[in-house]
Amino acid sequence: MPKVVATNRKARHDYHIAETFVAGMVLQGTEVKSMRAGKINLRDSFARIEGNNVVLYNMHIAPYDHGNRWNHEPDRPRRLLLRRDEIRHLIGKVREQGFTLVPLSAFFDSRGYAKLDLALAKGKKQWDKREDIARRDAQREIERAVRTKAKRGGE
After folding, report:
1. Which domain holds residue 116?
2. Are 131 and 30 in contact (CB under 8 A)?
3. pTM over the 0.90 mark
4. Cα-flanking dihedrals φ and ψ of residue 45, to 5°?
5. Residues 30-86: tens digit of each pLDDT
6. Do 95 and 144 lie in a common domain?
7. Are both 101 and 148 inside the same structural domain?
8. Could you please report the per-residue DSSP string of 110-142?
9. 95 and 107, same structural domain?
10. In angstroms, rounded to a whole number, what is the distance separating the alpha carbons of residues 94 and 91?
């Protein structure tokens, strides 16, 4: 069972998610320790393809409390580990169809490795966001009505 450390809740609000990939992360020791403590923020982060590598930008991992002068830089670019065929697939989608690479969540897998859920996403327009909110509110009202009807004994 993966231990989720951080989620990017804004990503599902701002983007249509087409596909997701699980990527490993190249981290330094103090970054892993700080990540295990939950001091990570994915809010404005994004990934780019540079050559044959996928690089994650703006992911903030706070400096480790007990780190010394070799502590890591909090906002440095971090390389993501994906299979070669996945990278080729991403290159085609990002270049041709205007997709973006957005991280959804960071977690530790069952073996203790730091992983990242990476989404191939397309930006939503403002009206898409309002439509999603209206749909969620309508679903909430339906569930509330069903609950009150069940509570009354199905009159």
Report:
1. 3-124
2. no
3. no
4. -85, 155
5. 888 888 888 898 888 989 998 889 999 998 888 887 777 778 778 889 999 999 999
6. no
7. no
8. TTS-EEEEEEEEEEPPHHHHHHHHHHHHHHHHH
9. yes
10. 5
